[in-house]
């Protein structure tokens, strides 16, 4: 995922932190220090080109509501300079508009400027034209009408650094109201390089020298804020080393100096999806456990979720084999909808940690053998993290003369060393995502070996076979029996890439495409690999841009069904947008492999025919942002590489029609604010609650199920148990019907008494949102 980060921290609009403006930014062994105050910060990655400007306000707002303090994004060089000297900061590329929105909503912003970003992004964010840059030292300063951009290209002859080419891009956006001369520098941290440690050994001593050079170059810029290198354990002082991965509470060796804070730059909320592979969602309980462990064990004070909203790999922006939907299991899904239980559970975690922040940042730490981290502040305040690291067994521990039940692999947070505010294993939110469709003369063997991603073979214009590789099998062969005619025969081989690589040493030396071509005929084997092949990049339809209104007029289209469709067929139709403001998606289950455009904008590649080991397509639903659509007459164009059936395509609205909550007496009450927590010394009246929240512009219209007692099952499948309060439904209706959100406490009083004394109770509620 990569990381050369450049942190931009803007003075926010809320009075509480307005003093950040002009304040000094430093760090010590506990945390970043902003305006003289230590901070515990939670950050969420939202990449601006993976969503649309119309989506940004909602995404940022929902992140803020989820307890996020910082919005992090890469800067995508190949999006901003697709051709040398031609810059593009429009639409999804308008990074200034994105940062403005972050600032307007009172959050900090973090820019990871690369230039190499990895990010499952085509060619790791590098513009492909860098292949043609001569081996010279180039310093280019461009004054853009809206930006001042500094590019420093460092090219060393006769050295091994990236073989002939090593590039460092420093991109500084100094734009009008985002940089207030009267207020001072609003940046608080910057990050240089991109997990370079993973490839450093490939370059020997030159790699080590480069790390020092990069660090000295960055610090020498005198930006006035700390610099960070992720996954670079030997980051030179004063640069801070940080951790990437899922288990930084267990795997991070820690800062390489006692004067540096523990920073987690990428906490992976899922696994990025690949065509041909099953999804591997990460349970939110595991995410929460390792965040709490990082805080408890490492004194962690900054955690960034990668991703908080993954979004969409529009067009051909994804790297090799990466699907169009990106990190769809993140707290905010591809469409920007809240994904429970991840969003709600992490919100509670953030609130619980913040309740401990003063003690954590100022106190002295001690560790006890029962798996506890204890922090005691100078004022006598105390906070504790009770850790059960056993993945198989629930345990009961006694801490300060009080018993606490810890589920397997969980951490309980006690902001005052007495009252349990949060447990990482106890998530109580469950949604259901739904897509609603709108009706709408001898045999020879041609043998090839390829390092592309797919290959189609044609003999004399007739398709003879296809094959493809996978993310784990970079080389594949296609051997098929063909018939040649007497005389001259034309052999055409269409080599297809589904994204370029995005990481690794010697990236510029990677090879792809055909590696060998042989023909066996009449007992003899001839090698045609080095024959003078004709070569053409791209398709005519792409050059003519026939996926646009204007371009589609440049070719002659046949009525569907009037001719036989084969490989490499373009299809077009028009459709009206579904009514309403819900996210819209295209169901391509009837297609096989290709790319799709709506009103001239590519919504990405599809590869439905590449099945996962479980026998299912990797992805069939493809996001169409509302901003791409018109009320009527939308142009839909597809390039189908194989033999899909476009009549089976449907368009649907994406919604969350049902919300379910399930809590028991072992669950904890929702984490309350620091102010309320301090006011109440006796917390025994607080109860676990079912908290229900419909998507925006939707209210609870129907109670599908409600049972206070001993309901059986869970939110996926449930039934009334042997103990059930007859008042369950009526009480939930009174509390929730007609509301966008509601909470129902697990309370005997609420439900008219105890329906079965002596039996532990639970409350399960399932509702419909319309």
TrEMBL record:
Reply yes or no: does the keyword Hydrolase apply.
Answer: yes
List the InterPro entries hit by this protein, alphabetically.
BetaGal_gal-bd, Galactose-bd-like_sf, GH, GHD, Gly_Hdrlase_35_cat, Glycoside_Hdrlase_35, Lectin_gal-bd_dom, Lectin_gal-bd_sf
Read off the CDD domains from this record: Gal_Rha_Lectin_BGal
Q: Which UniProt keywords apply?
A: Apoplast, Glycoprotein, Glycosidase, Hydrolase, Membrane, Secreted, Signal, Transmembrane, Transmembrane helix
Gene3D superfamilies linked: 2.60.120.740, Galactose-binding domain-like, Glycosidases
Residue ranges of the SUEL-type lectin domain? 687-770
Catalytic reaction equation(s): Hydrolysis of terminal non-reducing beta-D-galactose residues in beta-D-galactosides
Going by the entry's taxonomy, the superkingdom of the source organism is recorded as: Eukaryota
Membrane-spanning residues: 6-27
GO biological process terms, semicolon-separated: carbohydrate metabolic process
As given in the record, the signal peptide range reads none
GO terms (molecular function) for this protein are: beta-galactosidase activity; carbohydrate binding
Q: Which GO terms describe its cellular component?
A: apoplast
Q: Where in the cell is it found?
A: Secreted, Extracellular space, Apoplast
PANTHER family this protein is in?
Answer: BETA-GALACTOSIDASE RELATED (PTHR23421)
Name assigned to this protein: beta-galactosidase
Source species: Vitis vinifera (Grape)
Give the gene name: BGAL16_2
